[in-house]
Design brief:
2 domains; Tyrosyl-Transfer RNA Synthetase; 5 strands; binds tryptophan; mainly alpha; about 325 residues; about 55% helix; Rossmann fold; two-stranded parallel ribbon; 14 helices
Length: about 325
C-alpha cells in the first residue's frame, strides 16, 4: 500500500516562485509515489488578525496556482480546512491530552506572541494541536514541510504517542519530509522571497510584469559601471539563473566576471528564462480561471472525499475515548 502524505499551507493568495520551488513542485512530485492530501488551512489563518481580510479570495487564487502547477484532483485530495469540520472535533479531543506546558514552550508560539502582543489568543497556543489534528485525522505518515515547521511536527509526534499510550494504538507517528529545496532570495537579494516584503515574482504574473520586476532586482553591489567585473557568487540574479537557466550557467558566470555582459542584459535573460519555464503553467491557469466553478467543484469534491476518511477516524476516536 502507498504511504499517505498530508500537507497544509496558509491561504496566502497568489503564489510566487519561492513557494513554487520550495513547496509546490515537491507536492506535485509526491503524487507519483503516495496518496496525497493537500489542504489550505483557512482556520489557522484566523490565529493572526492580519490575514483574515481576504481568506476566501486568497484560497481561490492559491488553489488556481496549485492546480496550474500540476496538483491533480483526480489523484490527490485537495480541500479547504474549514470545509471538513471534523478537524475541529479532533482538535478538541486532542486538546484534553496535551499539557499546556508543551504548547507554551514551542518556539513558534513564543515568536508569534512577541510579534502580536495585542493578540495572544487561545487559538494561537493551540495552533500545533490543530495542525496535529489536520495530519492525524487522515492518519498520514509523511508531512512535507519547511524547516520552520519541525517543532510542530515534533509536538505532533508527542501528542500521537500520548494518545496511543492512553487509548491504544490508533495513529501512526507522522514524519516530516524536508524538501531539499533551494533557498530562493527575493529581488532585494537579502531576504527570503516573500509577498509581505514585496520582493517576489508571482507565478501568475504576465511576461511584462515579470520582466519589470526582475529589472528592479539588486545585483552585485560592487559592480557600478558596465565595465566593472562582476562577482556572480554574491549576485542574486546569478543564483536565480541557476534555477531558471541551468544550461547557460557557466557561460553567464564567465561573462559576468569578465564584464562581457552587463547587469541589464543579464536580467533580461533571466526574465526570459522565468517566462519560458512558467509559460505552460500560466496558460493552464488562465484556462482554469476562465472555467466557471472549476475551483469550487474541485474543492467540493476534495472536501467530500476528505470527509469520508475524517468521519471514520472521529468514530474510532470517540469509541476509544469512551464517548460512544
Ligand atoms: N503550520 C503550517 C505553516 O504555517 C501550515 C499547516 C497547518 C500544516 N496544518 C498543517 C503543514 C499540517 C503541514 C501539515 O506553514
Amino acid at each position: 500500500m502507498k504511504g499517505r502524505v498530508f500537507s497544509g499551507a496558509r491561504p496566502t493568495g497568489r503564489q510566487h516562485i519561492g513557494n513554487y520551488l520550495g513547496a509546490i513542485k515537491n507536492y506535485v512530485a509526491l503524487q507519483d509515489d503516495y496518496d496525497c492530501i493537500y489542504c489550505i488551512v483557512d482556520v489557522h489563518a484566523l490565529t493572526t488578525l492580519e490575514e483574515t481580510g481576504n481568506i476566501k479570495e486568497n484560497t481561490n487564487e492559491m488553489m488556481l496556482d496549485w492546480l496550474a502547477a500540476g496538483l491533480d484532483p483526480e489523484r490527490s485530495i485537495l480541500f479547504v480546512q474549514s470545509h471538513v469540520p471534523q478537524v475541529m472535533e479532533l482538535h478538541t479531543f486532542l486538546s484534553m491530552i496535551t499539557p499546556l506546558g508543551w504548547l507554551t514552550r514551542v518556539t513558534t508560539f513564543k515568536e508569534k506572541a512577541r510579534m502580536q502582543p495585542h493578540n495572544i489568543n487561545y487559538g494561537l497556543v493551540g495552533y500545533p494541536v490543530l495542525m496535529t489534528a489536520d495530519i492525524i485525522l487522515y492518519k498520514a505518515d509523511i508531512v512535507p514541510v519547511g524547516e520552520d515547521q519541525l517543532p510542530h511536527l515534533e509536538l505532533a509526534r508527542e501528542i500521537v504517542r500520548r494518545f496511543n499510550n492512553l487509548f491504544g494504538d490508533t495513529f501512526p507517528e507522522p514524519q516530516a519530509k524536508l524538501t531539499d529545496s533551494p533557498l530562493v532570495l527575493g529581488l532585494d537579494g537579502v531576504n527570503k522571497m516573500s509577498k509581505s516584503l514585496d520582493n517576489h515574482i508571482e507565478l501568475a504574473a504576465s511576461h511584462e510584469e515579470t520582466s519589470r520586476r526582475v529589472m528592479t532586482a539588486f545585483t552585485d553591489p560592487s559592480r557600478i559601471y558596465r565595465s566593472d567585473p562582476g562577482h556572480p557568487e554574491v549576485c542574486n540574479i546569478y543564483s536565480l539563473h541557476k534555477l531558471f537557466n541551468p544550461d547557460r550557467i557557466e557561460e553567464l558566470g564567465e561573462e559576468c566576471r569578465n564584464a562581457g555582459i552587463g547587469c541589464v542584459d543579464c536580467k533580461r535573460l533571466l526574465a526570459e528564462g522565468i517566462n519560458a519555464e512558467l509559460a505552460p503553467l500560466r496558460e493552464r491557469r488562465t484556462i482554469l480561471a476562465e472555467t466557471p466553478k472549476y475551483v469550487a467543484d474541485v474543492l467540493a469534491e476534495g472536501a467530500h472525499r476528505a470527509s469520508t476518511i475524517a468521519s471514520e477516524t472521529i468514530g474510532e476516536v470517540k469509541g476509544k475515548m469512551g464517548l460512544i
